[in-house]
Prior knowledge:
- By secondary structure, the protein is mostly helical.
- It has helices at 7-21, 24-34, 37-55, 60-67, 71-81, 88-100.
Amino acid sequence: MTGAESAAEAQAQLALVLARLGDPGSVAMLLDDLCTPSERRALAERWHVARLLAEGCYTYRQIHDLTGVSTTTITRVARFLNGGTAGGYRAALDVMTKDAQ
């Protein structure tokens, strides 16, 4: 890693480290170091919303009532979950489904 590393390279390195840490406790410790409490809360809220949307049983209003997350955020998560370019939510949900089986 050099001082001239681009933002994209830094993001790729972070993704690699998260993937290699191997256990939830280590990932949580790194997130505690990297993120403010409100950033961690926002990440957790988005993940909760993604899981509820994936269940397909709730309206946006019901998800808002359950979580307190704004409907704007719920809409954004839904957009990425249902065809966002990165596919991260879907990949993460697939991993969780495989782990549950």
